[in-house]
Specification:
The complex is a heterodimer. Chain A is an alpha/beta fold. Chain A is 38% helix and 22% strand. Classes of the chains: A alpha/beta, B mainly alpha.
Chain lengths: 274, 356
């Protein structure tokens, strides 16, 4: 089995929730997309973020990852306040994300998509390129070995020299997740990783997420597939109208009338055709 | 015969000079995605500074300019490159920090007009609309060269400089830094989400490209001995864009092909053709039209250029056994295959665990 090297890197502090949001708000024009969302993401667990369309799930993920600034509220990654921090800095603190629609780096090869992921590389410095070439070469060799190992695990190895833009939708999903893994995250935000992929691939992606947890990665995933949520997630956060409606295990939330009314009833009805 | 070689080596000079200019714009636009519509301004600054530092004190020369330090070749050229880099720092902080894509391009284009007007209308900098002239041909005294032999000599010097710069540029574009540039070009948001400080890398790319622009501009004033605003109208930037689009964005060898086709064959070669009787200047206008048509044709039918960007391949890790196609002999499970992996089994285990 592949080992996720360096995944022990965690933000300062090793106790309590790894991610804590308090009173997040975000409005677009007159619409409150996020309206006081407050929740904790427990360390080394898989947490699902669920809710009806328009509940503000992706906006919350955008705020957590620094892609969007909140109007108010705070976000802590471990003990570090990352509220409205530059997204590259948040990433360097160990928080990675994927996007709802896969965003591969199309002008790079599949292997290069992974090689670009390590956050700090000696070869990204002009000085090192010309005056410390051995260091650059050694690090590059190590990165290639690790990327190769990850591509094997994710079944993308034979495509390593293809342009990433040439991959199929499912392959792009896998590439995006494997690229995040290559970056050695401590927290991985997955925005609908199972959306639009075939059932066999859903099984595999679920397995990869469990692998990440086993290696000490905390996962927060937006997901509508409740079967998957039930099978792999330790904890569920329900968002509705930009607020946290409830948190807990899915089996407990099924008994919660508010949750059933706001979301679960809708999903259950949709899946049974009523 | 001597005149023939004068023409040929003048074309050789412009071929390699535009190769340098194209490499500079390519790292900004082709590799990093910064659409620098002010590029010709960086070329001009390199040219003016190279000339002004190599000229003697302006008193009694009939010209007005700053510097006048008698700096010899190639140090004046390097100073021209550095001056263009300093301009890049200013421009980057004005335009790059907050703007992207088309907005950035518009602001840069406007900046090139501002720069043009300042230099054209403020003669104390670089002699205003008259520009700098009487810039000495480098090393003619050392080798006792005539004008014709200087053209041959300096064309070869320019070719040598361009090959050195090509080696430098290739090393950068093949490095992890070049890869990060291309990641930013493809999707700056994703690069940022991977922890890359986009502004920092765009600034680095701007600095490298501007140095090349400054060197290319410096070589122009050293070759011709003069440089004035008519040589760098803001629209000239698009000639360099045409070179890289025709040659192949992101391919350093393609840039040489682009420089040969656009700059040498379409722009400078027609200038040496005799005028059509009764139609003076028609050939020049015609060549500008041909460039436009070639550019449109390339963008329609071959947008990747004559020599497209190639996928970067890496050697397999040590101990890897590859078949003749370069694929591993221990083939992993194809992506779309039915899930029979350990990971799938773990999902099943987890499911059972939940049931329990």
């Amino acid at each position: 089995m592949m080992t996720y090297k360096d995944l022990s890197t965690t933000p300062a502090g090793s106790e309590g929730p790894i991610l804590r949001c308090e009173g997040l708000t975000k409005a677009f024009g007159g619409v409150n997309a996020v309206n006081g969302a407050t929740f904790d993401v427990p360390r080394n667990k898989i947490t699902a973020l669920i809710g009806p369309n328009g509940a503000g799930k992706t906006t919350v993920v955008n705020i957590l990852s620094g892609a969007m600034k909140s109007d108010s509220g705070t976000v802590h990654l471990g003990s570090t306040d990352v509220t409205n921090m530059d997204r590259a800095k948040i990433a360097r603190l160990g928080l990675m994300r994927t996007f709802q629609l896969s965003r591969e780096l199309g002008g790079l090869s599949v292997l290069e998509n992974l090689l670009v992921a390590p956050k700090v590389q000696a070869g990204e410095s002009i000085f090192n390129i010309f005056f410390r070439p051995r260091l650059v070469k050694r690090e590059e060799r190590q990165n290639i070995e690790r990327a190769t190992e990850i591509l094997r695990t994710y079944g993308l190895y034979d495509l390593r020299d293809n342009w990433a833009r040439e991959l199929s939708g499912g392959q792009k999903k896998l590439l995006e997740i494997s690229r995040g893994v290559m970056a050695s995250p401590s927290v991985f935000l997955l925005d609908e990783p199972m959306a639009g992929v075939n059932p066999a691939l859903i099984e595999r992606i679920g397995g990869y997420i469990l692998d990440m947890k086993a290696q000490g990665v905390t996962v927060l995933m937006i997901e509508h597939n409740l079967n998957v949520v039930e099978r792999i997630c330790d904890n569920v956060i329900v968002l509705a109208e930009g607020k946290t409606l409830a948190t807990g295990k899915l089996s407990e939330l099924r008994q919660n009338k508010e949750v059933v009314t706001a979301y679960l009833g809708e999903v259950i009805n949709a899946s049974t055709g009523h | 015969m001597a005149q023939f070689w004068y023409y040929v080596f003048t074309l050789v000079f412009f071929l390699f000079d535009y190769f340098i200019l194209a490499m500079g714009l390519n790292i900004q636009y082709g590799e990093t995605g910064v659409m620098n519509f002010a590029y010709i301004g960086f070329v001009a600054i390199g040219s003016y500074v190279t000339g002004a530092v190599s000229l003697p004190n302006s008193v009694g020369t009939g010209q007005q300019y700053i510097f006048g330090w008698n700096i010899p070749f190639p140090f004046n050229l390097i100073m021209g490159g550095i001056a263009a880099m300093l301009l890049a720092v200013v421009v980057a902080f004005i335009a790059l920090r907050r703007l992207r894509t088309d907005y950035l391009a518009m602001v840069l284009f406007a900046l090139s007009f501002v720069l043009y007007d300042i230099i054209n209308n403020y003669p104390r900098l670089f002699n205003g609309a008259d520009g700098l002239y009487n810039v000495a041909e480098p090393m003619t005294g050392v080798f006792h060269m005539s004008t014709n032999s200087f053209v041959i000599f300096f064309s070869l010097v320019t070719a040598a400089i361009s090959l050195i710069l090509w080696a430098v540029m290739s090393r950068i574009t093949r490095s992890p830094l070049g890869r990060t540039f291309r990641a930013i070009r493809d999707d700056a948001d994703v690069a940022s989400a991977l922890g890359k400080g986009v502004f920092r890398y765009q600034l680095t790319s701007m600095l490298i490209g501007s140095f090349f622009a400054g060197i290319g501009g410096g070589l122009i004033i050293q070759f011709g001995g003069s440089f004035n605003p008519s040589a760098w109208l803001p629209g000239e930037t698009f000639v360099v864009f045409a070179v890289i689009i025709v040659g192949g964005v992101g391919n350093n060898v393609g840039l040489l092909v682009g420089a040969l086709l656009v700059e040498t064959l379409l722009i400078h070669l027609p200038a040496f053709l005799p005028d059509i009787p009764g139609r003076p200047g028609l050939i020049e206008y015609f060549s500008a039209m041909v460039i436009g048509i070639v550019l449109m044709a390339m963008l329609w039918f071959r947008p990747q250029g004559m020599l497209p960007e190639r996928v970067r391949k890496f050697p397999a890790p040590a101990g890897e056994l590859l078949n003749r196609d370069g694929h591993s002999v221990v083939a992993p499970t194809p992506v779309e295959a039915v899930a029979t992996t350990n990971s799938a089994a773990q999902v099943a285990d987890a499911h059972e665990g939940n049931d329990a």
